[in-house]
Amino acid sequence: MIKICLISLGCVKNTVDSEAILASLKKSGYQIVSSPADSDAIIINTCGFILSAKIEGINTILDAAKYNKKLIVTGCLVERYFDELKKDIPEVDLWIRFKDEYKHLPRLLNKLFNKKEEGFAGDIDFSERILSTPKYTAYLKISEGCNNFCAFCAIPFIRGRFVSYDEDSLVEYTKKIVKNGVKEVVVIGQDPTSYGKDLKDKNVNLVTLLTRLNFVEGLESIRCLYLYPEGITDDLLKLIASSDKFPHYFDVPIQHANDKILKAMNRRDTKQSMLDKFEKIKKYVPDAILRTTVIVGFPGETEKDIKELKDFISTVRFNHLGVFTYSKEEGTKAFNYPHQLQQRTKDKRKDEIMQLQAEISYSLNKELVGKVFKGIIIGEDKGDYLVRCVYNAPDDIDGNVFLKNTKKHKEGDDVLIRITNAFVYDLYSEEV
Predict the structure, then answer these.
(1) What pTM value is reported for the model?
(2) Rounded-to-integer distance, Cα 5 and Cα 212, Å
(3) Which helix (H) or strand (E) is 295 found in, with range?
(4) Residue ranges of the alpha helices (H) in 243-342?
(5) Which residues of the chain have pLDDT under 50?
(6) Which domains does the chain have, with CATH numbers?
(7) In 3D, which of 187, 186, 192, 102 has the Cα closest to residue 147?
(8) How far apart are CA 138 and CA 22, in angstroms?
(9) What is the pLDDT of residues 344-363, one digit of tens each?
């Protein structure tokens, strides 16, 4: 049996794609292995969002080529730089693009190995996945592509226009994985709050989907990531506030808080609209955990603009905040903007924001001491358990919650914890 090793890079949306690839390969009679050295072919699912991801992707391809196996590369990097990559890295046997070849990857692999298609189970199907996450958790990608065309982002050019997945299919898939032991799903997409806008049935939207998921028997937790501020409706907030299945956790990337920069970024929100939105979130969900990302060093950004962003962050007080320095990306509107800033200026502003956020995070974490949360055991660290609760999402971006090891547990167990100590990014707890 031909052995395949798949290396998945980038975001959790890429992870879902890789899980679907694995399922299609298994159905097509290939054996999945974890070691490139033990494989007959290596598939790399790349990211191509920003410079650091592109460098990682190219280095991974070059490292994989050293094994002298069949080498297949797909993902965002290929979609962006297909012609250049094909010319510069001849060691790759197959370059797989989204638009034409992607769904047919198993067929192309069969052809590469001169393998007959007896028993071939079909093209890549996102309702069939081999989950790479722990058995109790899974990502649920509800859409593909994006229509926002933010000036810094190449995603619409890579992934295409926004397409919602069928609501019935998403619900049925969730029921299936819950029967197999999944207790929590994490809803993702490039722009989840736009879910349903492209469908013929105008009664379908993010709230109707989440409402149906809320009634899936055996499903304990439904968390949403990457919520566009403008798309967070009162109905969505009411739903999250009304059901124990929704962690009171809001991941809302804002990117900036200065109206001039927001307009140049082609963002639809304003500073005031976002202040109003976070105030409304806290009105409906007073104990909300807030996460966001911002971009510093965007073309034309001034020290005054950075001060305004700092003031905004100090006002809203996010529990978790990530900072990216602006990356000049080919094909985006901002690529040709004047007043591009030097990297040292971007790095300095990033450091300033992170220092401010460290102070805010520590202050908010101390306020959690004494609070009781439901959680799931997700691992161990130096004799303590690691727990996921409302405080931290499954994508390894937020801080850790440690649980003192006083009772025997296994990964996936439900626990009730009380926060006993707080640090800048991590929390310590004891079992109740």
Answers:
(1) 0.94
(2) 36
(3) strand 289-296
(4) 259-264, 271-284, 303-316
(5) none
(6) 3-112 (3.40.50.12160), 137-367 (3.80.30.20), 372-431 (2.40.50.140)
(7) 192
(8) 15
(9) 999 999 999 999 999 999 99
